[in-house]
Amino acid sequence: MQKSAQPVALWSLYKMFLYVGLLSFGGGVTAWCHREVVLMRGWMTDDEFFSGYSLAQVLPGVNSTNMAVYVGQHVRGLIGAIVALGALLTGPFFAVIAAANAYHYLLAVPGFQAAMAGIATAAIAMIFRMGISSARGSLHHIPSLLVLIATFITVGILRWPLLLVVLVLAPLSIAACWKKAPNGPQKTAHE
SS3 for the chain, per residue? Predict the structure, then answer.
């Protein structure tokens, strides 16, 4: 998708992240963010989003807040990063305070625990769908596919430390992509 000539309005950025923050119970914030930013609004391409997603995974902090900062910065610079992060945290801040005050009452509501389990299941399904979307590009490039499989096995199955896996596989992945491009890595639209 091509980016529009008009920058994303700060109010639109705020509304979208407030919406994502309020409705992403049980995880899945990044998957929901991908849906809203890439699929629904076209503010970023899959490649741009997944570059930020990779960065958000290895940086310290919560992945969803890292992604909000990345997306906000990508579409509106520093002010966009501040607006996106503030919006993402505004709704949950008040929701958690309200839920903490009402928690004992909510446990007594029939079906409350089942509803929470259902919400968590939906969040897992969204993360799974996003994982499939991000893996599609790797299927056409054997070295990328090998890194994808190695990462899945070492982290997902063998439970090796993520830092160790990244330190070993990141240079291999970069080298594979460098060789894939005819003149080294390609510049993005923002360089």
Answer: CCCCCCCCCHHHHHHHHHHHHHHCCCCCHHHHHHHHHHHHCCCCCHHHHHHHHHHHHHCCCCHHHHHHHHHHHHHHHHHHHHHHHHHHHHHHHHHHHHHHHHHHHHHCCCCHHHHHHHHHHHHHHHHHHHHHHHHHHHHHCHHHHHHHHHHHHHHHHCCCCHHHHHHHHHHHHHHHHHHHCECECCCCCCC
